[in-house]
Amino acid sequence: METFGRRLRAAMDTRGPLCVGIDPHAALLARWGLPDDAAGLERFSFTVVEALADRVAVLKPQSAFFERFGSRGIAILESTIRQSREAGALVLLDVKRGDIGSTMAAYASAYLDPDSSLRADAITVSPYLGVGSLRPAFDAAAAHGGGVFVLALTSNPEGPSVQHAQTAAGRTVAQTVIDEISQLNAGASDLGSVGLVVGATIGRTGHDLSAVNGPLLAPGLGAQGGDPAGLAAIFGGSLRNVLPSYSREVLSAGPDAAALRAAAERAATACGAVIG
Ligand SMILES: O=C(O)c1cc(=O)[nH]c(=O)n1[C@@H]1O[C@H](COP(=O)(O)O)[C@@H](O)[C@H]1O
After folding, report:
1. Which of 96, 240, 248, 261 is catalytic?
2. Ligand 1 near 126 CB (within 6 A)
3. The domain spanning residue 167 has which CATH number?
4. CA-based diameter of the chain, in Å?
5. Domain encompassing residue 74
6. Model pLDDT for residues 187-196, shown as the tens digit of each residue
7. Using CB atoms within 10 A of its CB, is residue 48 exposed (0-12), middle (13-18) or buried (19+)?
8. 197 touches 150 (CB < 8 A)
């Protein structure tokens, strides 16, 4: 079975390294002339999938915007994931889960088990209960060719108060997460299947990403003020493993499919100039 890391590398090589988030904000539904209900959510999500799933490497539905509409929203999330994968995009489901190991196993089964209706290619997780508590997700990912992206240095301004704090060992919390994930990916050929989330807004922080050997999701571009020109300072020699991620910046070009594609193309070109 092909690992997620290898599938992602192949997708980034053939389609270019770009992730587009599917974040159906109420404000975007209004901007697209859609009602703020399940029908609007469905139209929005399917339009994005139809416009982009056959060309971008990764689509990243943000679960919160689907959960907002209860069971109907979850059913639309299931179809969004399925249609995206059928059209050839890898799906990174942004759910930011993290719990004690026994509960984490249930989350892992919900999102990474091939028999689950919510099965995605990869999920986002939070290491706040300790990286070790995420083990069931790493194991499920390995068993099913899936991936896991662990929050390390997030794009929001509140992140550094926790992530830059020093541990008793004299490293920052974020560096501890980075180092533990690096160990998990050690020996993986080309790209490991456990990624990190490192915001495109954080600037130069002095964290060492050189040993990660896994994908580096960079959200925060566009709407949050992150600029592709800033990626080199953040990622240094690891730029080849960076997956830049845009949501509102691209989505606000809709609902016209050609306009969505053009916005994604502009984002890819701007990032490509830095990532190469
Ligand atoms: O895991 C994420 O994707 C994520 C991590 C992070 O540090 N910052 C961040 O903004 N995100 C997500 O990325 C998306 C950013 O959306 P835009 O700001 O509209 O591009 C949202 O769905 C966030 O939840």
Report:
1. 96
2. no
3. 3.20.20.70
4. 53
5. 4-275
6. 999 899 999 9
7. buried
8. yes
